[in-house]
């Protein structure tokens, strides 16, 4: 980008006393771009030299090219004197002077280089002004004097930083407008939805509220119908007891219906009655059985116990009888225990 000419450069040419001195327009570029210096040379040059702020940075001599300082490996120099610097940065800012030897005389040209920071994406906003919607595009304030704006909408381009659209125009929900900011050769852009800037139709607002109410009523009706169904099936009490019974420490329900639980209770009570009846019958049968002479009755209802033998002082102590007169159990070396006697008595009664 070429900027305005600098009168001081023309005075510098006169002070140098050169045969021919040109002061070209300054170059304005953005970081990362290329800067192209095209000096004005009349005739065919045999030797060309470029200096930056008085220091040699490039030289062309009969086809041999050399670069110095920061231009090494990122610059080009042609026999026409055209100098190209790739990926310019702030360190390249300065005054460049070309010296071309033509027919034994030097021709000079002075060009300044200004490097700008990369622009940021623009900020977009919209507002209703009268019967139109105004869309405004705003870029970096420090680059405002170098920036160019244009809007693109539906294939149409408007070279302005603001555009207006009538309120009555039909704008689709997906339609967008894009603002493009150009600084030198660099472009950045931002987009905005047109429908977001237009006032909403009151009928659309009413429809949205009605839709919300319908959804809420439908959900409430579904919940009520579910509760009624669970109540009729008897599941609601079970769910209630499981949830609140655990919290209060009550025993957990078996999950059976009330009728089933009553039947289980009746069965349990009947079984207890049967047990009591069987015990009472057993006691009556025991009471009805005759008590043997050698058995001692027991008031507690237990089976009779063998009578204890009583020994009188006058009765002589009998001598142990021989093994032939003893019972069979004694012959075998076994003593009659109360249990053995009871068993023998029961066998005799059964016979």
TrEMBL record:
Membrane spanning residue stretches: 209-231
Keywords carried by this UniProt record: Glycoprotein, Membrane, Signal, Transmembrane, Transmembrane helix
Domain called Ig-like: residue spans: 1-112
Localization terms from the record: Membrane
PROSITE patterns named in the record: IG_LIKE
Species per Swiss-Prot/TrEMBL record: Sphenodon punctatus (Tuatara)
Protein name (record): Ig-like domain-containing protein
Pfam family for this entry, one: I-set
InterPro entries linked to this entry: CD2/SLAM_rcpt, Ig-like_dom, Ig-like_dom_sf, Ig-like_fold, Ig_I-set, Ig_sub
UniProt biased composition (Basic and acidic residues): 275-286, 328-351
Gene Ontology CC annotation, any one: membrane
Signal peptide location: 1-23
Segments for region (Disordered): 246-351
């Amino acid at each position: 980008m070429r900027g305005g000419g600098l009168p001081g450069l023309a005075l510098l040419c006169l002070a140098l006393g050169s045969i021919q001195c040109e002061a070209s327009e300054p170059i304005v570029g953005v970081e990362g771009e290329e800067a192209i210096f095209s000096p004005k040379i009349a005739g065919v040059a045999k030797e060309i030299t470029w200096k930056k702020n008085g220091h040699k940075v490039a030289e062309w001599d009969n086809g041999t090219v050399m670069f110095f300082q920061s231009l090494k490996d990122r610059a080009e120099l042609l026999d026409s004197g055209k100098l190209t610097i790739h990926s310019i940065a702030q360190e390249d800012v300065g005054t460049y002077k070309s010296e071309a030897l033509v027919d034994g005389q030097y021709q000079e040209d002075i060009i300044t280089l200004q490097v700008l920071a990369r622009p940021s994406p623009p900020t977009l906003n919209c507002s209703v002004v009268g019967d139109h919607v105004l869309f405004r595009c705003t870029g970096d304030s420090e680059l405002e004097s170098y920036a160019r704006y244009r809007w693109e909408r539906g294939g149409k381009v408007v070279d302005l930083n603001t555009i207006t659209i009538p309120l009555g125009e039909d704008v689709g929900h997906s339609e967008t407008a894009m603002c493009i900011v150009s600084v030198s050769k660099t472009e950045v852009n931002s987009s905005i939805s047109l429908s977001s800037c237009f006032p909403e139709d009151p009928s659309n607002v009413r429809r949205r509220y009605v839709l919300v109410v319908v959804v809420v009523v439908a959900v409430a009706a579904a919940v009520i119908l579910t509760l009624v169904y669970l109540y009729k099936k008897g599941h609601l009490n079970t769910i209630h007891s499981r949830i609140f019974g655990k919290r209060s420490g009550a025993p957990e329900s078996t999950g059976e219906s009330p009728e089933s639980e009553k039947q289980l209770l009746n069965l349990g009570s009947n079984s207890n009655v049967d047990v009591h009846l069987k015990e009472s019958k057993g006691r009556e049968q025991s009471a009805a059985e005759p008590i043997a002479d050698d058995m001692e009755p027991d008031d507690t209802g237990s089976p009779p116990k063998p009578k204890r033998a009583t020994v009188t002082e006058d009765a002589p102590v009998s001598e142990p009888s021989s093994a032939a007169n003893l019972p069979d159990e004694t012959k075998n070396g076994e003593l009659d225990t109360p249990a053995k006697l009871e068993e023998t008595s029961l066998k005799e009664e059964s016979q």
